[in-house]
Every structure is written in C-alpha cells, then in structure tokens.
Amino acid sequence: MDVMGDKATLFETGRFVQPSSREDTDTPDETGEIADEAAEELRQRLAAETGDVEAMSVLGAMLLRRGDLDGAEPHLRAATAAGDRAAANNLGVLLHQRGYADEAAGWWRIAAVAGSTAAAHALGRHHRERGDEPAAEYWLRQSAEQGHTLGAYALADLLEHRGDAGAEHWMRAAAERGHREAAYRLARALDRKAARDADDDGAPVPDEAEQWYRQAAARGHRRAALHLGTILEKRGELKEAGRWYLTSAKDGEARAACALGFLLRDAGDTENAAVWWLRAAQDGDGNAANALGALHAERGETQTAERWYRAAMDAGDVNGAYNLGLLCVEQGRTPHAEQWYRRAAYAGHQEAANALAILLLRAGDETGAEPWFSKAAEAGSVDAAFNLGILHAGRGEEQAALRWYERAAAAGHTEAALQVGMALLRDGEDQEAERHLRCAAGGGSAEAAYRLATVLDARRPPEPAHELGEPVHRRSECEEWYERAASQGHRRAQVRVGMHAAARGDVVEAARWYREAAEAGSRNGAFNLGLLLAREGSEPEAAVWWTRAADAGHGRAALRLALVYARRGELAEGQRWADRAVALGPESVAERAARLRDALRQELSA
C-alpha cells in the first residue's frame, strides 16, 4: 500500500521511534531493547487506563507501528476525541491502511487544521491521488512551509508535474533537509537545464548538480550513484567512478553493473567484466547482453554470442538485431543477415538501415538499396550520406552526389571531405577546396594529404637565392603534407618526397623514397630511381628500374632504355625500346624516340 510518510514523522511523538532496519538476530542488546519496549508499552498502557491522553496517543502509535490495528484503534480514537492532533493523524493512517481513504482524510484534515505537518502532507497526497490538484497543492504547501521534508518533496513533485518554476525551490528545500530522492531529482533538473542552455547533451555537468548527485548517492540512492560514476568516468577519474558504479550495482542497478563491466574491460579485466555484464543482463539490461554477445563473438563462440544478442533484442535493445545481422554476415549467412538488419532498420536503427542498403547494393538491388540509404542518412548516419554520394556519382549525378558528400563532410566524414575537396579543385575553387582537404588530411586520408600538398606546392613562390648564389632549401608546409601521405604508403607522394630530397642534394633519402614507391608499383618512382642511379654511375642497375617502368607503360623509361642499348651497340634491342617509346608517348618523347628508331633502322640496314 502507499504509505503516506516515513515512520519518524508519521507518529509525531518523537520519543519512541525505533530504527526501521535492524538485524533479525537474537543478541543480548536486541533482547534488552525488546524488553525495554515491552516495559514502556506496559507503562503507557497503565497511564492510558487512568485517562492520560498523551499515553493513549503514544500507545496507539506503538501498536499501529507493530501492525496491531485492532488494538491501536480504540486508543487513537479516544486520544483524538480528547483533541490530540498526533492521534488524529495516526488514526487517519490506520484507517487508510484499512482501506477507508475518505474517513482517513477527514481525520487528517482535523489534525492538519490543528497544525500537524505530517497530516497536512498526508491530506495533500490524498487529494492528489483523487485528482484534486488545487486542494493537494494547498495542503502540501501548508506542510512544506512549516518545514515538513516529505511535504516539501511532494509539493515539488506536484509543481514539477505541472511545469511550475517553483518546483526547484521546494525540491531544493527537501534536498537540504536530507531527502535523497529530492537531492537526486534536483541534480537531474540542474543537469538537464545546463544541457539545454549549452544546446549539447554532452555539456559538462554543473558543480552544483554533481554535489547533489554525490549527496543522494552517499545516502544510498543507486541511480544517483550511477550518474555520479558516469560524471567521474567522463572526467577520467576512473577509480572513483568504479567505486560508485560498484555501490550502485550492488544495490541492484543493472545499468551501473553494465557500466562497471565496460570499465573493467577497458582496464583489461574481461573476466570480471563478464561477471558484471552477466549480472546486468540477467536483470534485463540489453546493453550488457550485447556486450556479452560481442565478447563471445570475439572468442569465436558464435552460438553463445547469438544467444546473448537475442537476449538483448528481447530486452528491447534494437542493437541486438543489428549485431545478429553482423554475426550472420561474418558467417556468410546473407539471407539471415538481411532479415536481422531489416528488423533493426524498421525499428529505427540507422546503422542497420545503412548496412541493409549495402547488402542490397552488393546483391545488385540498387533500387531497393537507395531508400534505406536515404532513411539512414536522414536519421543521421554519416556513412549512409557518404554512400548516397557514391551512389549518385556512379550514375553521373554529380550535383546530387556533391550534396550528400557535403552533408557527410560536415559531420566529419574523412572520405566525404576528400570528395568535396576534389570536386572544388575541378571547379577551380582552390581556397574552399583547401579547407575540405585539410579536414580530410587531418582525419588520416593519405590522398587528401597528397592533394593538399599539391595545392600548396602550386602556390609556393620560387626558392630565394643565397647571397653566394646557392639556393636556400627550407622545409615547406607542402613537403610536410607530402611526407605525411608518403608515410601512409601513397606512391605519388613518395615520388614527390624523393624529388624534394633530390633537389636538396640528399641522394640517399631520395633513393629511399623512390625505391619504396617503385617497389609498391609506381612507374614514376622506378623511372626516377633509374635516373638517380645513372647519375651515380650505376647504369646497369638503372636499366633494371627503367625496364620495370617501361613495362608498366612509362614512355620516357622506354626511351632511356633505347639510348642505353644503342650506346652498347645492341641496335636491335635499342630499336625495340624506341618503338615502345613511340607507342607510349607523350608526344615530345614519341618524336625523339621516332628519330632514334629511324637512325637505328638505317644503321641496321647499312
């Protein structure tokens, strides 16, 4: 049943209130307390029999507390008839317990009018349960204004329900008087207000809100302990966060057990993490069930993983269906994957919608894929927006593709920013292109770093001359971007870094980068490495790299080989490479190669 207050205020005597939670053990101390209570009851009973009104009230309260309603009622009625307001309040409690709510309210009214704050609180609660909010507010306010903690909390709850700005004042009053639920709700209100003002759900929690979370948590409020743990974890105070998660989890908060599991996993303790996830999952936490599923999937225990993903789904966590889809894809069970992705996508899971679209696109169903990409993108999936850009670009719909790329780029998608930058470069908008390329390069795109370097390289003024006429080589920003791209394996960037090193006279560094590019398949890298080796007097080794470059379609390398073989007197081989150079071009190379070929042909026919 709905108790109208805590026992410390309910009986209003203040003299015989016993702790509500004692160990049920037969110790000498407890036996003594029971004996003392029995003696006190006997003393009050004897006094009540002599007509002592206060004794009647106290005796009635003692019997009511013990659950002896039949024994308590006559004493409370007698004391109430004699004008004892505490007895009137407790008689109302007794009648409420018997199910006579309206009669109880009558006695509470009498006690409240006589100045009982507990009765005013109980009467306010009664009117609110009946839907009479004006009357409820009147009596709760009477109770709260006279310092009754439960009255202040109940009034705050009523005002908050109505959206009244005065709710915070009374919630604060109840919290300051030690009401732990009020402290928690005040903290939540301050937390949400700060997030609204900052227009950001991830805004830092105000210090005052944290203090109220801490106060409520210290009094055993498990959700406050959970929120306090979350605040501390975000701040990097993991040890203290773990302590509050543990406190909350031990009190039965499944979300805290789940969060504690993640904290332990991040610390490398997957065994204990699994223990807490199991506890949370068994209490119905879908996130913990998903975490257990992922843990078993990593271990290759797919059947157990699937069982936990299904448990997550049954707990209402749509991630369970999405994860089942991922599991089926890994196992090659595409029809089942599509089924689970659809289930999650229909429930509003944006990444599932994107994954479903990819699955359909790979199966050749572009018509079926596009609506799911659109749905996911509209729901906020950055990957889906990028994929829509790819879809439109594949059809030659450049403007539509650019719109989706721009949308994904605005949300931080690296490859989308690269595509926007390249589109702007094609349109000659170098300044705007540079901004997007910087974003993409900063996000780790090697191609963006290379493209950004080429933009900066094109703007670079000529190197100033040293006073003695020698060029001064300073490391430029474009070289830094070339090197970043080169270190990520970008072949053209590696060639450019080699060229810059060669210009500085650093032959060893240039050769290293040329060789790395050449071995990765760059024909320009192979050609430049050949030039470097030839200048160092290693023409046979240079010919090896020129051959690799020419075989890959490099016309200048073929012309160099033709010249090498002509000088060696191997005219037929020289003519063959000259023919190859003519075929490969470019035009200036083809003209020179044709002249060399004709000369070699005449020499051979002489």
Give start-end ranges of low-pLDDT stretches. Answer: 1-29, 466-470
Structural class: mainly alpha
What is the strand content? under 5%
What global shape is seen? elongated
Terminal CA distance: 119 Å
Mean pLDDT: 89
Rg over C-alpha atoms, rounded to the nearest angstrom = 41 Å
Provide a count of the helices: 35
User: How many strands in all?
Assistant: 0
Into which percent range does the helicity of residues fall? over 70%
Could you describe the largest sheet, including whether it forms a barrel?
Answer: none
Topology:
Blueprint: H1 7-10, H2 28-49, H3 53-66, H4 69-81, H5 85-98, H6 101-113, H7 117-129, H8 133-145, H9 149-162, H10 167-176, H11 180-198, H12 207-218, H13 222-234, H14 238-250, H15 254-266, H16 270-282, H17 286-298, H18 302-314, H19 319-330, H20 334-346, H21 350-362, H22 366-378, H23 382-394, H24 398-410, H25 414-426, H26 430-442, H27 446-459, H28 477-487, H29 491-503, H30 507-519, H31 523-535, H32 539-551, H33 555-568, H34 571-584, H35 587-605
Helix pairs in contact: 2-3, 3-4, 3-5, 4-5, 5-6, 6-7, 7-8, 7-9, 8-9, 9-10, 10-11, 11-12, 12-13, 13-14, 14-15, 15-16, 16-17, 17-18, 17-19, 18-19, 19-20, 20-21, 21-22, 22-23, 23-24, 24-25, 25-26, 26-27, 27-28, 28-29, 29-30, 30-31, 31-32, 32-33, 33-34, 33-35, 34-35
